[in-house]
Amino acid sequence: MYSVKSFDADRGNGATNRFNVLKCPDWVNVLAIVPSGQFVFVRQFRYALARETLELPGGIVEDGASPLESAQEELLEETGYAGGEWFILGNYLANAGLQNNYVHSFFCRNPSPKLGVVPEDGTTVQLLSTEEVRQALYGGELCQAFALASVLLASRQGLVTMS
User: Fold this and answer.
1) Which domains occur in the chain, in start order?
2) Which of 3, 33, 78, 105 is the most exposed place for a label (fewest CB within 10 A)?
3) Half-sphere exposure of residue 39, counting CA atoms within 13 Å on the CB side?
4) In this structure, are residues 91 and 71 in contact, taking their beta carbons and an 8 Å threshold?
5) How far apart are the first and last CA of the chain?
6) Which parts of the chain fold into alpha helices (H)?
7) Of all helices (H) and strands (E), which one includes residue 20?
8) pTM for the whole thing?
9) pLDDT digits (tens, 9 = 90+) for 82-116
């Protein structure tokens, strides 16, 4: 799934430097709002941080799947929600200084819980009001860059109001 490519390259000034690129599949995330107006978030333990984080549902784009198909699958797997009206928010580089992959952010309006689907182990679904999302944004609890980008993109496109 992940690999490191190391190579030497001329920086343009005659000096050669060693570069490492983490080759990754593209990622997706979903900013979803259910009919009650609440946002769908997940809490997951992140071993790199040794703590739980508040995030948007998301994951990798599987081989042979489109970003939209992957986003729909991640929303279902992580939260048990499906359906609704889908919009692309945008695509952006995950970390251009080190990685080669893109993040594809989506907005989903009015998904509903799918009967019999239990969210992934280790994932807690949390429905938040607009005010709670605002508090999480400005209070630092919602601190993953991809989630922040998705909220900003949705706000700029008039899909949500955060002011």
Assistant:
1) 25-156 (3.90.79.10)
2) 3
3) 27
4) no
5) 39
6) 67-79, 130-139, 145-156
7) strand 16-23
8) 0.91
9) 999 999 999 999 999 899 999 999 999 999 999 88
